[in-house]
Amino acid sequence: MAIRKEHKEFYKVDLDKGWEKLPDYPDGIEQQVLAGFLDEKDKRGFRTRHLRFAPGVHTTEPFVHDYWEEVYLVSGDLIVGNDRHGKGGTRFGPNTYACRPPGTPHGPFRSEKGCLLLELHYYDESAKR
User: Fold this and answer.
1) What separation, in Å, do the N-terminal and C-terminal C-alpha atoms of the chain show?
2) DSSP tally for the chain: helices H, then strands E
3) Backbone phi, then psi, for 38, in 5-degree steps?
4) What pLDDT score was predicted for residue 3?
5) Between β-strands 29-39 and 78-80, what pairing exists: parallel, antiparallel or unpaired?
């Protein structure tokens, strides 16, 4: 099965609208889906989204998921590898990038000033054959 996304031509993305809270994430972390979908139950799909952290927000546990993830830090600061209390970790700034295969532990994360990320999430459809 081929990965499909809806056709969208250039349009101005409104960074003030379309944000939603994510289940099991702390308050202050929201997503804005730009295109596609990700069906984690049936392990298929391809989603492009913005993820934003409000200033001072942090997660407490590493994340692990069964899909590919590419992350580009557009603006702000992202600190990777903090402890459960938001202390420590390595700081990254704009124009930094990560590409993670399925099953890769990553995080926890925090942001002091807040940040905007562009993320691509997808399943490797060819691995199912």
Assistant:
1) 9
2) 0, 9
3) -130, 115
4) 64
5) unpaired
Q: Which residues have a Cβ under 8 Å from the Cβ of 34 and sit 6 or more positions away? A: 8, 13, 48, 49, 50
DSSP 128: G
Confidence of residue 125 (pLDDT cuts 50, 70, 90): confident
55: domain CATH number is 2.60.120.10
Inside any domain, residue 7 = no
What does the alpha-carbon distance between residue 27 and residue 46 come to, in Å, rounded to a whole number?
25
The secondary element (H helix, E strand) that includes residue 39 is: strand 29-39
Assigned domain for 14 exists: no
What are the tens digits of pLDDT across the range 76-98? Answer: 999 999 999 999 999 999 999 99
At residue 86, what is the residue type? G
**Structural domain total, the chain:** 1
Q: Which domain holds residue 40?
A: 20-124
In a domain, residue 4? The reply is: no
- Are 125 and 44 contacting, i.e. CB atoms less than 8 angstroms apart? yes
Q: Give tens-digit pLDDT for 14-42.
A: 999 999 999 989 999 999 999 999 999 99
Within a domain: 100: yes
